[in-house]
Amino acid sequence: MKNRELLSLLCCFLLQGTLLSQIAPQKSTEKWPPELTEVWEPEPVVVSPGQSTTAPSDAIVLFDGTNTGEWIHKDGSPCKWTVQDGAMTVAAGTGSIFTKRTFGDCQLHIEWRTPAEVKGEGQGRGNSGIFLQNRYEVQVLDNYGNRTYSNGQAGSIYKQSMPLVNACRPPGEWQTYDIIFTAPRFNAGGMKTSSGQITVLQNGVLVQNHTRILGTTEYIGLPRNEAHEKAPLQLQDHGNPVSYRNIWIREL
Ligand code: MG
After folding, report:
1. Which end of the chain is less congested by CB atoms within 10 angstroms, N or C?
2. How confident is the model at residue 26, as a pLDDT?
3. Measured in angstroms, how far is the CA atom of residue 252 from the centroid of ligand 1?
4. Could you report the per-residue pLDDT of 89-131, keeping only the tens digit for each?
5. 165: CA distance to ligand 1 center in Å?
6. 48 CA to middle of ligand 1, Å?
7. Percent residues over pLDDT 70 in the chain
């Protein structure tokens, strides 16, 4: 096809494309050159993937196994959780921990392990949690042969959305969450204009598929939707010595 013909076809497409696609999209596009539907700009930025589950080149590493410098307690004091053998473990009673940084839309990778020595049952066995924006909990729990309410088990958006499957590994083994989170949006008047959305893979298995977040995680009562901006990531002290390692996040 000559350049002039291609140009005239392109003009025709630009002028009539919408109308044509509404009338008879298949018939009208059969003779198009394939280049008409190619998009070259912008070009996706090149990112070197990490080996296995190590952080990719553009991630913020929130815990690399050596120190808890990215984390503080609610009162701003340094993180008192213990660091040993490349993992940090809840020191029961010291309280939940929060990132110094705040986040909005993100991709989060985090590895967790419930105690090998099984104690307690239901919500009392290996309970912790990952709170996106300090409000929306992806439950961490030992649910390997440990029944509890379905919307409170590991992989749930706590009290809002049960996981699609139970993909738990046995207690004492490391498990992964890969989380893709879209923060809720609020207008200037403080009204929510779009809900948060979350996708979660547990150990590589899809457990939440673009799930709508109804509002804040509440132990009692219904979710709330007060306006907020970027906020810290929180890891919960629920009194059980749950461990974490290899935590990294990519802001979207
Ligand atoms: Mg929890």
Report:
1. N
2. 55
3. 25
4. 999 999 999 999 999 999 999 999 999 999 999 999 999 999 9
5. 18
6. 33
7. 89
Question: Distance from the CA of 107 to the center of ligand 1, in angstroms?
Answer: 20
Domains of the chain, residue spans? 3-37, 60-251
Name the CATH topology of 60-251. Jelly Rolls (2.60.120)
CA of 236 to the centre of ligand 1 (A): 6
Q: From ligand 1's centre to the CA of 84, what distance in Å?
A: 22
Q: 174-190: per-residue pLDDT in tens?
A: 999 999 999 999 999 99
Rounded to 5 degrees, what angle do the CA atoms 140, 146, 150 make? Answer: 65
CA of 139 to the centre of ligand 1 (A): 5
Whole-number mean pLDDT of the chain? 90
pTM, entire model: 0.85
